[in-house]
Design brief:
This protein is α/β, with parallel strands linked by helices. It has three domains: 3-101, no CATH class; 108-341, Rossmann fold, CATH 3.40.50; 354-424. The protein contains 15 helices and 14 strands. It has helices at residues 3-11, 26-32, 38-48, 52-66, 70-88, 96-101, 130-143, 165-179, 201-217, 228-232, 240-258, 280-285, 354-369, 377-386, 395-411; strands at 108-110, 114-115, 119-124, 156-161, 188-190, 220-226, 261-267, 288-295, 298-306, 315-327, 333-341, 375-376, 415-418, 421-424. Helix 2 runs parallel beside helix 4 (52-66) and helix 13 (354-369) crosses helix 15. Mean pLDDT is 85; it is low at 1-23 and 427-434.
């Protein structure tokens, strides 16, 4: 170890040895550790959220320095780690000096679009690739791959999947093939079912599942919740009290204890498609908010809210079809999509006219009432008539008004039809886009 570093270790007060503003590495620290400074080495390892293998390598050096058995040191560290997690879950007040010690420049997870230990949300209509975007960002972080040219801080990622594990598998494989990165040992984990965060037992089960993998792979740096609706539980997302419980549960059980970022994928409102659906309490709690808007084949990710920094420029992403090395039942190749950066000029979608919007909103409502399944033309047409798609009472006039709106929505790529049943244009990849 360099003599100058050793000298600095001796002169720095022990309480600063676990600070992010450290002048030396954990390896240097371990080689110079003393019985008095050992707890601060433990703090440093807990705060860095590294893998178990990394922690063992550092503690092995510390064991040699202290001339103590590694197994004994490891047991002490794990006890300290457990106590630190429990302490972070407690409510307490900080002194001004403690607040200052936690301040400083942004600690980026994806620079400059997402920082560590923050709450973020991406919302959008169906077909805007927001779920693809979440997986793309999560895999980039878990694999230590720059996210569309933006540096990431690598770490463990948990993806709480609302539905469609089979479709998720295709998306993961497409990303793996496109980037040429084997995901076998990448710390990206997908839940086998949705959570129910307003249910008393479900959040505890999520924490237990995270802890089980955290022991080997380190604290999570990102937990993705896709979507809010599928993981909300027995409550009303439009109710302020219920939404506040959801936010507080995410904070108290996940974000603060693990010092990780939570990214929530959400829908737009049916009537207010410029904003996320549900109570305003969620928007108020966010550090980062993004909306995904589709312009024909390009998705624009717009920064709506950035706490403490100026709003960021949009990110433009284009889906690219990937032929998988898996086969369908008919022996044809499976396909999915990956998102790629694009500099293509976008054609901004024109706002829908009143009649076109009536037709589109009625389709969304019909699908919701039909359990998420496409609805037949006759059902859509009848509902559109009842919603007043034409001011005339003449059947011929109403039929023409509906046909014009339907054809326009199809031409603009907003809806699609199969066997005379209609739905909003989804993402491909064989999973409903949330």
């Amino acid at each position: 170890m360099d003599a100058s570093i050793a000298a600095r270790v001796e002169t720095i007060p022990p309480e600063f040895l676990h600070s992010p503003e450290h002048p030396f590495t954990p390896c240097d620290f371990a080689e110079q550790v003393t019985p008095e400074t050992l707890p601060f080495l433990f703090m440093r390892l807990v705060n860095e959220s590294q893998t178990e293998d990394y922690q063992l390598r550092i503690l092995e050096k510390a064991a040699k320095t202290l001339k103590r058995p590694l197994a004994e040191l490891w047991r002490e560290f794990r006890k300290h780690q457990k106590n630190a997690i429990n302490e972070q879950r407690k409510f307490r007040f900080l002194s001004v000096s403690e607040v200052y010690s936690q301040s400083g420049s942004n600690d980026w997870l994806v620079k400059p679009y997402l920082d560590k230990c923050s709450m973020a949300m991406c919302y959008g209509q169906s077909g805007t690739f927001k779920s693809f975007l979440a997986i793309d960002m999560g895999l980039s972080i878990a694999s230590g791959t720059n996210w569309h040219g933006n540096p990431v801080a690598p770490g463990t990622v948990f993806y709480i999947c609302g539905e469609g594990q089979k479709g998720i598998a295709r998306r993961l494989r497409a990303w793996e093939l496109h980037h040429g990165i084997c995901l076998d040992n990448v710390p990206f984990f997908v839940s086998n079912r949705p959570a129910q965060f307003l249910n008393e037992e479900s959040p505890i089960a999520v924490v237990a599942a995270v802890d089980e993998l955290r022991d080997q792979h380190g604290n999570p740096v990102l937990i993705i919740i896709d979507t809010l609706n599928r993981n909300f539980g027995p409550g009303d997302e439009s109710n302020t009290s219920d939404m506040t419980i959801f936010v507080n549960t995410i904070d108290s059980l996940l974000r603060f204890p693990y010092a990780c970022t939570t990214l929530i994928i959400h829908h737009t409102g049916h009537k207010e498609q410029h904003r996320a659906r549900g109570a305003y309490a969620l928007h108020a709690a966010l550090d980062w908010e993004y909306v995904a808007i589709r312009h024909e084949t390009i998705s624009e990710l717009i920064n709506v809210k950035a706490k403490d920094v100026e709003n960021l420029p949009s990110v433009y992403l284009k889906p690219e079809k990937i032929i998988l090395d898996w086969l369908e039942d008919d022996r044809s190749a499976m396909t999915s999509l990956v998102l790629t950066s694009t500099t293509d000029k976008i054609k901004k979608n024109k706002p829908l006219t009143k009649m076109n919007k009536v037709a589109y909103d009625i389709l969304l409502e019909g699908i919701k009432n039909n359990g998420g399944k496409s609805i037949h033309t006759d059902v859509w047409r009848t509902a559109a008539y009842q919603a007043g798609i034409s001011k005339s009472d003449k059947p011929d006039t109403k039929q023409k008004a509906f046909a014009r709106a339907r054809d326009y929505l199809q031409k603009e790529g907003l809806v699609e039809v199969k066997d005379d049943c209609w739905r909003p244009t989804p993402d491909t990849g064989h999973t409903q886009d949330n």
